[in-house]
Design goal:
Layout (H helix, E strand, L loop, with lengths): L1 H6 L2 H6 L2 H29 L7 H36 L5 H28 L7 H7 L1 H16 L5
Length: 158
């Protein structure tokens, strides 16, 4: 790697590792989506507990741990690796990737909303129903379906 950097630009050297970046990007996406699909389910169950009860406190620990240990780091890895891949491959100019970028921004916004929900539950301030969380639980699934279709089909050939 260092010999390559001495003789070639960074983009050329890192280009040799695209399969590695892609593999880690896919693993990060799987981790992020696992958390994004599980967290609203925890919220739905949490709404059925009494604030301050033992089960409510257990849900708070689970929600906070899932967000901090899995969802947040996975999202950061997805963004870093995804932007690196877009730069290395030049795909950032493709329409399909620009649409994917908008969808991933939407997923990131939903991630932020979920983080706020974790704080609301932690402070016993949740105002939403279990039904709300069961419905919003479908949004990450729909987004990931659209994102995967864009990646695999790459429509709007540029």
């Amino acid at each position: 790697m260092f010999a390559c950097l001495a003789n070639s630009p960074l983009q050329v050297c890192l280009g040799n590792y695209i399969p590695w970046f892609l593999a880690f990007h896919i693993m990060a996406v799987i981790a992020w989506m696992s958390g994004m699909l599980y967290l609203p389910r925890l919220f739905a169950y949490h709404t059925e507990t009494t604030p301050g009860s033992e089960s409510s406190e257990r849900f708070k620990v689970m929600e906070r741990g899932l967000l901090r240990r899995i969802i947040n780091p996975a999202m950061i890895a997805v963004w870093v690796l995804g932007l690196t891949l877009a730069w290395l491959t030049g795909a950032y100019a493709d329409t399909w990737l620009q649409i994917k970028f908008v969808l991933v921004l939407g997923m990131s916004g939903l991630h932020g909303f979920f983080a706020r929900c974790v704080r609301d539950f932690a402070n016993d301030r949740n105002t939403r129903s279990a039904r709300f969380y069961k419905i919003i639980n479908e949004v990450p699934f729909v987004l990931i379906v659209l994102i995967v279709l864009l990646v695999k089909l790459q429509p709007f050939g540029d």
